[in-house]
Each structure stands twice: as C-alpha cells, then as structure tokens.
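// run 5 | inverse folding | seed 20
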C-alpha cells in the first residue's frame, strides 16, 4: 500500500464526507450549528471558545488532534469556560492522522488550527465536504500548498461555503478605521512602508523521549521545523506582512530580497529555522516595504507598522495619521480574535457571505517569498515564488516515516526550487 502524502491523503477519505448534506447559507438560517475543532493546542482552544461565544445556538460537537494530551487539555479548559455548549462523547474525540476527516464529516463548521503544514490538506477536505471553515494563519508552508488553498477557496466561493481567516487584524475595529483612511488617500500615495516585530521566542521544546520516532519528535516541536511551521517569518510575521498587503489594497510585491540566519538559537535541538529575517519588498508602482523580525532570547521586543505617503504618514499600531489631514482613533483596542468569529456567525445567520481565501493565501506566500530569498540569498520575483515547485511535504504521514534532521539553510548555497 502506498503511504499517504499531503497531496494524496485526502483522496482516500474524502468520499465518505459526500454522504452528508451540504450546508448552504444563501439565506438566513436559525439551526443549531455543530462546530468541530481540528488542532487542540492553545490557539485552537482559543478559537473554539471564541466560536462558541460568537453565537447562542452552536455546540462544540467533535474535536481532533494528532496527540491525545492536547485534546484532553483543550476539552478540560473548554468545559470550564463553555459548560453548556460542549457535547462531545468519547466517540467524537478523534486522535491520529485521520482525526481531521472524522471531525469534518460530523460538523457544519470546522476550525482548523493544526501546524500549518496540514492546512492545505484540511482546507481541501472541508471544502470537498461542503463545510464552512475558519482557518488559522498561515495557511501553507510552501508554494504548492498556497496554490492548493487558492484552488480550494475558489471552489468554496462557487459553492457558497465560508472561508474565514485567522489573520485577525483585518477584523480589529481601529485597524479597519485607519485602513479606510489610507485607502481614501488621507496620506496621499503610499511611497514606503516599514514593519518590525522583535520577540524573544515563543515555543517551548519537548525533550525527546524513549520510543519517539523522528516524526513524533518533530511534530511535538513543530515550530522549529520549516516543513511544519514555515519558519517563524511565516508562522508569526505573516500578521505584519498581511497588514502591509491590506494597506496596499491587496496588491502584492513583484520583487523581494531578504537576509536572515540563526545566531542566538544555534543548538541542534532548535531544529533548523532561523532566528532573524530582514526583507525588502518592491511593488509594481515602486513602493518599498522594509520588513524585519527576530526571535532571540534575552533581547528587547518591539512592534512597529508605518506607512509613508506623499501627504503624511501613518502609525498603524497606534491608529494615528500625521500630516495634512491628521487623525487618531480615540477608542480602545477591540478583541480581534473574537470579532473574526462574531463576523463569521453573523454572516452565516444573515445570509451574507465571507471568503478570505485569496488574501490569506497570498499573504502567506509573501512570507514564504521572504523566507526563500533569505534561505537562498537570491532575489525573487512574485511569479517565481508563485510557481515554485519546492514541496516540503514528507514522503508519507506515518509514525515510522524516517525524518532526518534537515540542514540549516545557507545563503548562497541553498538552491531555490
């Protein structure tokens, strides 16, 4: 039997989902919605809580994870905060490689929050099953995955099923207000942008235990492996790059040159991802974006998003415009993680439609573009990265799959594919 891969695993199980009726919210609907969670880590647990908070007539109906421990922890947490909205007997608590399909098969809305490697597969499966999707960011780790997500989102649009993105700044009220003003020309034509996110590192390491295969060890430390996380410029910094894409009215850069490396986290147990990146993006109209991020323990942090125009400048994070027509958002920051779910269920109930598939895929690709430029030391065009054939999927999704430690990318030696 041929072991499954990301590209083929869905084909063996998708047919089972077709026996379930399609959910079509072309008109308002008042039914109780069954919500399923795939990926029971901290972000998945948070998304489930927010989904259950967003609507009065929903229930968490099924959960799935590759490992039992996060599933059990997640359910324990959710039962405390949402005791009246959890209905999950053991028969709907799914563990293992096919857990995602079992959750999708039994629910109306699925929350996809596993490591990003699996997002294209899970999105495709949910679209094939005609289920509504909330997909955490990022949505892929390589260009083939991005192309898969674009195709799935296009199919979802044709059939009227939702694709809501976890790029939550798009739903934050103050950020929406400042973007309206940028798009209305309040600082004139944007000529340059800069974004920085400096952090200290976020993911704890799981010490390898006797009996763990290569696959299990890497999955338990997924953040530190590019094939699983996309590297932290994709996994985390995608938020900042998406804000810049939004400021540019969802135009994407035509060119990128980037640098990066690892100087603070050099030990082998940190996998092979970098700990800093810097990139220069160029847009078709000549606008430049200067982007930098780092995850280095013991260092000071900073977050900054600026746009510079012909008639002023804007600090996005403080929701402030300076120049000929100054403006400042005078209200408090809203809870954007909640607002994205509020918007989703309001639209489901009202018969409106949301599909964030295009920008969530292309902003992910923008981050991959910078990573690959830094890894290889080569300047890349948008067309080159969109057409890249580099597929980070392992030969199979199996516990006994041999997974040698990947080498650290060396600019000038690592090749672009």
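// decoded
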């Amino acid at each position: 039997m041929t072991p499954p891969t990301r590209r083929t695993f869905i084909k063996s199980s998708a047919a089972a989902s077709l026996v379930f009726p399609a959910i079509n919210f072309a008109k308002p609907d008042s039914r109780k919605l069954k919500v399923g969670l795939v990926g029971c880590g901290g972000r998945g647990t948070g998304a489930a809580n927010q989904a259950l908070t967003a609507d009065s007539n929903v229930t968490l109906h099924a959960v799935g994870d590759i490992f039992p421990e996060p599933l059990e922890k997640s359910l324990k947490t959710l039962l405390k905060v949402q005791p009246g909205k959890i209905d999950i007997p053991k028969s709907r608590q799914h563990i293992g490689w096919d857990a995602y399909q079992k959750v999708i098969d039994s629910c109306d809305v699925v929350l996809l929050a596993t490591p990003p490697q699996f997002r294209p597969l899970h999105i495709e499966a949910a679209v094939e099953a005609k289920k509504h999707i909330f997909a955490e960011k990022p949505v892929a780790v390589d260009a083939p995955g991005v192309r898969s997500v674009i195709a799935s989102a296009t199919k979802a649009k044709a059939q009227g099923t939702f694709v809501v993105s976890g790029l939550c700044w798009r739903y934050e009220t103050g950020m929406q207000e400042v973007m309206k003003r940028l798009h209305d020309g309040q600082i004139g034509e944007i000529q340059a942008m800069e974004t920085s996110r400096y952090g200290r590192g976020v993911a704890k390491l799981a010490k390898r235990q006797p009996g763990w295969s290569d696959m299990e060890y890497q999955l338990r430390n997924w953040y530190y492996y590019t094939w699983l996380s996309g590297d932290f410029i994709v996994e985390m910094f995608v938020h900042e790059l998406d804000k810049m894409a939004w400021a540019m009215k969802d135009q994407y850069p035509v060119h990128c040159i980037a640098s990066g490396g690892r100087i603070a986290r050099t030990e082998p147990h940190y996998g092979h991802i970098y700990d800093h990146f810097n990139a220069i993006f160029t847009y078709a109209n000549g606008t430049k974006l200067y982007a930098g991020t780092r995850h280095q323990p013991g260092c000071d942090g900073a977050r900054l998003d600026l746009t510079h125009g012909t008639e002023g400048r804007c600090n996005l994070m403080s929701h402030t415009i300076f120049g000929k027509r100054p403006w400042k958002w005078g209200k408090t920051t809203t809870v954007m993680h909640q607002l994205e779910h509020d918007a989703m269920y309001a639209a489901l109930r009202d018969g409106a439609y949301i599909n964030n598939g295009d920008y969530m895929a292309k902003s992910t690709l923008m981050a991959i573009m910078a990573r690959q430029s830094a890894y290889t030391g080569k300047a890349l065009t948008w067309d080159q990265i969109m057409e890249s054939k580099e597929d980070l999927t392992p030969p199979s999704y199996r516990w006994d799959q041999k997974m040698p430690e990947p080498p650290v990318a060396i600019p000038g030696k690592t090749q672009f594919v």
